[in-house]
Amino acid sequence: MEKAPETGIEESSSPNTSQDDHKQWIEAQDDLKRRLVTEDDFSWKLSKENEEEEEALLRYVGGVDISFSKEDTSVACGTLVVLDIQSQDLQVVYHDYYLVTLTVPYVPGFLAFREAPVLLELLERMKKNASPFYPQVLMVDGNGILHPRGFGLACHLGVLADLPTIGIGKNAMRSTKGSLKPIFISVGHRLSLVTAITIVKMTCKYRVPEPTRQADIRSREYLRKHQTGMSE
Questions:
Q1: Which whole number is the average pLDDT over 68-91?
Q2: CATH 3.30.2170.10 holds for 37-226
Q3: Nearest residue to 190 via CA among 20, 35, 22
């Protein structure tokens, strides 16, 4: 994935943004944060006590990621994948792609204003098509409450989509000793940290949980194949 990490560094204006833009974004984050839920709020179950509870189990876990062209970082591919975590091999049952030219630059602390609209479009497409695989939980390649103002991309997306979300970060505001290439799990929306960690463990084959890993792999491959000749 070709994007800079979200950090706790004090924001400075990008050549294409102003302090007024940043002020408006902070106000928008503060407004959305009032709707944030950081405890369990869902109807499905993580485990079953009897056979009758089979249908109530968490089954469909989505992953989203955005990859950027190395030649032109405004060209991006948003990807949504959904896995059936009750299948033996965490089968991918749905995938979709959205190739776009972004006009909002990357600014530390405001990643959601660049990426959330792309990811919301993918979720809306799926909802409009009445897909039976619409995710019950969404893993986001980005932080949740592990953010300078406690409201990262996973929170932003979760609140707007009204979905339980988990932030999967590869970078943190502070380094962690004793871990080799750790991932940083943070609450996004409508899940507790304990539940978020449990779901991540259920979906890990490698270092990165499979939903965001598959979204990353597929977005880079789709971008490589389709960005040539893309119209803006």
A1: 95
A2: yes
A3: 35
By the 8 A CB rule, do 13 and 19 touch?
yes
Place of tokens 């990426």: 115
pLDDT digits (tens, 9 = 90+) for 198-210: 999 999 999 999 9
Give the pLDDT confidence score for residue 174 in this predicted structure.
40
111-155, pLDDT tens digit by residue? 999 999 999 999 999 999 999 999 999 999 999 999 999 999 999
Q: Tens of pLDDT along 25-65?
A: 999 999 999 999 999 999 999 987 766 677 799 999 999 99
| pTM higher than 0.85 | yes
Sole residue written with tokens 């990643």? 111
The DSSP bridge partners found for residue 168 are 141, 185
Q: Are 164 and 152 in contact, with CB atoms under 8 Å apart?
A: no
> How many CB atoms are located within 10 Å of the residue 64 CB?
31
Nearby residues of 115 by Cβ (< 8 Å), 6 or more positions away: 66, 78, 142, 153
Q: Where are the domains of the chain?
A: 37-226
3-state helix, strand, coil in the chain (%, to 5): 30, 20, 45
Output the CA angle 22-38-166, nearest 5 degrees.
Answer: 75
Q: Point out which residues pair with 100 in neighbouring strands.
A: 76
Radius of gyration of the chain (CA): 17
